[in-house]
Amino acid sequence: MKIRTLKKEILFKGKGLHTGEEATLILRPRKEPGKRVFIKTGESEIDVPFVPENFTADYRCIALKRDEKVVLTFEHLLSTLTGLGNIQCDIVIEGKEIPNFDTSSSYFVKEIKKTGVEETGDISPFKLKNAVSFSFEDNKEIIFTPADSLKVTYIFKKEKGLEGTLTLDITPDIYEKEISRAKTFIFFEEIEEVRKKGLGKGGGEENVLVFKDGKWVNKEIMTYPDEFLRHKILDLLGDFSLLNYPFCFHIIAIGTGHRHHLEAIKKLRRYLVREEIDIKEIYHLLPHKYPFLLVDKILNFDDKRIVGIKNLTFNEEFFQGHFPENPVMPGVLMIEALAQTGGILIAKKLEHRRENILFYFAGINNVKFRRPVLPGDTLIMEVEILRWGGKVCKMCGRAYVGDEVVAEAELTATMVEVKK
To answer: Which of 24, 35, 155, 199 could serve as 94's disulfide partner, Cβ 3.0–4.6 Å?
Structure first.
C-alpha cells in the first residue's frame, strides 16, 4: 500500500453542524505515516496526540477533547482522508468544530482532488489473522474479518420504520461516487432533544435529512435512495481513522454508532497485525531463554507501543507446581511477560547498539490482577512507553485474555552496560 499526502496546504472556512459557528481548518502535507492534530489559538498551536483516548463520542459526533478544549465533528473530514486512499496530513483547527458544509464529505473530496495528492512511499497496513467481534447493548455488534482490501457492511436494524443493509468496497473512486455525497440524517423525534443539548445549530432541512412517520420529509436534497446507509458507512470510516494507520479488513457493523466504534477501536488494536516479530527474532532480541521466555510472537509495534502474545498450554512448567489441581498462571509471570514485551520494543529501538546493554527492573507500581489466567488461554500483552530519558524507561502494560484485562502495571526499567 502507498503512503499518500497532499501536494500542498488546503484552507477551509465554514460553519459547524453542531455549534453553527465559523471555524477555520488547515490541512498540511505530511510525508510520514499517520495524522497529527493541532488546536490553533491566536499565534500558538497546541499539538494534541492523535490517539483514540483523546477523542469522545459524547456530542453525537467524534470530538477531540483535551483538558478543557473540545473540537466537534471530526468524522466527515477523517472519512474523506481514509476514503481517498489513506491520506496522511497535519490537521490544524481554529474554532470549536470542523466546518461541515452540507453535512456530507463531498466538499472535502472536491478540494482535495483540486489540490491533488502524491505518493511518498510504501507501507504495510494493519490486517487481521482471525475474525474478531465486539457486542454492545440492544443487540448491536461489530465484526471484523480478514480481507485483502478494505470493505464495509452496514446493517441498519429496523428503527421507526427505517432499515436496510449495504456493502461497499472502499476505493477512492467508489468513495467519491458512492459515499461522499451522503448527508447526515436524523429522526424527527430526536430533533428537540438535540436542540436541548445545544447541538445541531448549524443543521436544518436544507442540509440534514429528516425521517418522520415512515418517510423522508425533505427528499429533494437526497443524492442516493439509501443515503442513510451510505452516511453510516461514511461516519464509520471516519471513526476508524482514529487507528491513525492504514487498515485492510472487512468491517461489518450492526446498528452501531460513534460510541460503539470508539470502544471497538480501543479493543481492536490488540488484534491488529502489521510488522510481526516471530519467535526466532524474539530469541535474538531478548536475553531470556526457555523456560523463562514468555513471549511467543509480536503482532505489531511502533515507536511507543507494542502488542505481543503468549499461548498458554497445560505443559507450561509453572502450571505443574502452581496449584496443580487448579493450575493458574502466577501473577508475577504475567508482569514478567509484560516486561519482556516492553523489552522487545526497547531492543528494536536500540537495534544498532544493544549488544552490550541489558535492561533491569527498577520499579513496579500500581499492579493489579483482575482474574486468573488458565491453561488454554492466550495472553495478549499491550505495552506503551510513557517516558524514556537517559538510562531509564517507564512503561505501562496491560495483559488481556480476550477483551478482559487480567493484569496491569506500571513498569520502570534501567539500562545497564555489561561486559562480554
So the answer is: 24
Give CA–CA dist 330/314, Å, rounded: 14
Domain ranges of the chain: 1-273, 279-417
> 1-273 belongs to which homologous superfamily?
lpxc deacetylase, domain 2 (3.30.1700.10)
Alpha carbon of 247 to those of 82, 150, 298: distances in Å? Answer: 9, 7, 18
316 confidence band (pLDDT: 50, 70, 90): very high
Q: How far apart are CA 137 and CA 278, in angstroms?
A: 37
- If we measure between CA atoms, which residue out of 162, 112, 99 comes closest to residue 10? 112
Chain centroid, CA 273 distance in Å: 13
- Name which of 14, 12, 176, 206 is nearest 106 in CA terms: 176
The grid cell for 239 is 471513526
Check: CB of residue 21 under 8 Å from CB of residue 140: no
- CA dist 158 and 156 (Å) reads 6
Q: Is 284 a catalytic residue?
A: no
Q: What is the 3-state secondary structure (H, E, C) of 125-148?
A: CEECCCCEEEECHHHCEEEEEECC
Block residue for cell numbers 552490550: 356
CATH architecture of 279-417: Roll (3.10)
Closest CA relative to residue 235, chosen from 253, 217, 214, 218:
253
* Burial readout 215-228 (b: 16 or more C-beta within 10 A, e: otherwise): ebebeebbeeeebb
Q: 322-357 pLDDT, tens per residue?
A: 998 999 999 999 999 999 999 999 988 887 555 677
Cell of 171: 476505493
Q: Where do the DSSP E strands lie in 84-212?
A: 87-94, 117-122, 132-135, 141-146, 151-159, 162-169, 185-187, 209-212
CA distance 168 to 11: 30
Residue 391 — pLDDT band, cuts 50, 70, 90?
Answer: confident
204, three cell numbers: 436544518
Reported as a pLDDT band with limits 50, 70 and 90, residue 365 is very high
